[in-house]
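Quick one, tokens below:
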């Protein structure tokens, strides 16, 4: 009975997110709208960027206290919007709770590895199926499309589902079969704060950022290569710190 109480408590952030975003009335915007606004959808909802998500931020934080240049500006000419706003925090909290439950039954309850893997795979498939149902297995359609900027329920469920499936694979390879010691993810995880701060402070400089001048149709691949090089440098730094037994944490 106790576990079910925790499950209900863990669902509370998502229930709050759904209650606000799907019922709050926003002026000149359809109730429950969760799109980018701007020139999307033939400009039918030009001033509706984020729907209730942006409205809550504007009322609580004020327009001067959230992100002013979101990625949707380049594509849809949308309004300012904070992808890490108040409502997105509720759905992100739900994703964190999903991870907490996984960690509990893997490390606390002492289950047989086969049972752990079955539960990880089973829950991963169910979560991905739920996400597919919400987004209609489409890129931009469905009841609730997959939207990272909004941290939409379909996005959160998809992240949780794939995380469980990946965790199951890693658990089998690392903990059950002992075929891999976790390198280089182990080293990066042990100094994750250093890598995060390094990226935040030096992310726009060489060698963490290398921009390639390519034809417009190939620009994406230039950015991809730049990011691959940046990640490789970060992994190298983490490996060097690990070799020196230097670990920085909060």
């Amino acid at each position: 009975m106790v576990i079910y109480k925790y499950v209900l408590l863990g669902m509370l952030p998502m229930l709050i997110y759904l209650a606000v975003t799907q019922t709050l009335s926003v002026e000149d915007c359809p109730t429950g709208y969760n799109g980018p606004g701007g020139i999307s959808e033939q400009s039918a909802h030009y001033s509706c960027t984020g729907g209730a998500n942006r409205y809550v931020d504007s009322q609580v934080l004020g327009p001067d206290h959230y992100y002013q240049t979101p990625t949707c500006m380049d594509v849809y000419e949308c309004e300012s919007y904070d992808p890490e706003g108040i409502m997105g925090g509720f759905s992100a909290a739900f994703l964190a709770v999903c991870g907490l439950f996984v960690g509990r039954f893997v490390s606390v309850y002492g289950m047989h590895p086969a049972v752990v893997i079955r539960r990880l795979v089973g829950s991963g498939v169910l979560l991905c199926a739920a996400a597919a149902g919400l987004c209609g297995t489409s890129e931009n359609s469905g009841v609730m499309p997959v939207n990272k900027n909004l941290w939409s329920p379909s996005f959160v469920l998809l992240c949780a589902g794939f995380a469980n499936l990946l965790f199951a694979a890693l658990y089998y390879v690392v903990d059950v079969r002992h075929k891999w010691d976790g390198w280089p993810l182990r080293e990066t995880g042990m100094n994750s704060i250093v890598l995060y701060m390094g990226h935040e402070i030096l992310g726009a400089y060489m060698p963490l950022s290398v921009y390639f001048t390519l034809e417009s149709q190939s620009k994406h691949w230039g950015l991809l290569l730049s990011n691959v090089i940046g990640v490789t440098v970060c992994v190298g730094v983490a490996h060097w710190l690990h070799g020196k037994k230097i670990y920085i944490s909060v």
